Amino acid sequence: MKSILSTNYYVHFQGNAYQNLDTYLKENFHSKVFILVDTNTKKFCLPLFLKKAAFSLDVEIIEVEAGEVYKNIDTCSHLWNKLSEQGADRKSLMVNLGGGVITDMGGFVASTFKRGMKFINIPTTLLSMVDASVGGKTGVDLGVLKNQIGLFSNPEMVLIDMDFLKTVTQREMRSGLAEIIKYGFTFDRSLWYTIKDFTSVDMKDVVNLVYKSVAIKNEVVLQDLMENSVRKSLNFGHTIGHAIESYFLESPDKESLTHGEAIAIGMVIELYFSYKTFGFPMELTDDLKAFVKSYYGEVRIEEKDIAKITDLMKYDKKNVSGRINFVLVEKLENCKLDVQLSPELIQEGIHYYIKN
Q1: Ranges for the 3-dehydroquinate synthase N-terminal domain (predicted)?
Q2: Does the active-site annotation cover 174?
Q3: Catalytic one among 12, 42, 238, 289?
Q4: Is residue 206 part of a domain?
Q5: What is the number of structural domains in the chain?
Q6: Left (φ > 0), alpha (ψ -120 to 50) or beta: where does 14 sit?
Q7: C-alpha to C-alpha distance for 22 and 55, rounded to whole angstroms
Q8: Has residue 210 been placed in a domain?
Q9: Is 12 annotated in the active site?
Q10: Which end of the chain is less enclosed by CB atoms within 10 A, N or C?
Q11: 68 is catalytic
Q12: Does residue 230 share a domain with residue 192?
């Protein structure tokens, strides 16, 4: 697959990825190389990566616990201390090997350590390949509030190796598929029509879906790096979705959702808003709802949860002057940005998901 040029770095795929990594390491001096992993990627992905990659330098492995709950400033402090203890400097290189938590947090830690050291992202989950691989967003959560602390900082390159997907669960594969569905409604309807008949994620289909998704996101980012206009479209489903994800993460009586599971619910609800506000076809809204409930399973949202979920939306990064801004879909491949809705409609949309 042909490499994709982003703002000032490339996304490389498959065997081509390791050839470019080898060339980069030979042509650039690095005092030390650090590989950031979590407990899962250390076990399942690191051996495969070290087998395929050629390092002339010794590498230091830094390990953190796996999970969104560890994507916070406390973990960053631990990593900054580890880097300092192990002699990292501004000529060191950080290789982030993992899902979105690792690439987001690793990029943030590298970009802020001694005012910046270089980093490379190697996403190992479907979600991180199609979402975190392009765009330069780094950061961590503030408590349960998603991605509240961070900055834009580009990696030296992104390497996508589909073999890592053999190490992830079907649940994680389904999670990543939600972000591809997002691209299907906002930029390329063929993606949605390809996915809607899935009963499981077939690896033969995944390769093309990943490449198309990266190409779409990259085209958007090149138009709007700092998310002032069209890049906001990539937040479709995320205003409510992030609030649901945060609420389920902090509630002791709820099982935490994956990012994709929460965003899938968010897209169903925000399509309902799109139907009520812009006349988006109800048939397509019902189709997505049926697919999400069948494919991801029914998530129980109770009446008592609604007020708490809506309250969490006030922390969304797209908000301005206290106004909650939604990305809605007027018709397939045509988004409306910065849409404000009444509290009544927001509750109505959540009820739409809840009811059979």
Answers
A1: 62-174
A2: no
A3: 238
A4: no
A5: 2
A6: left
A7: 8
A8: no
A9: no
A10: C
A11: no
A12: yes
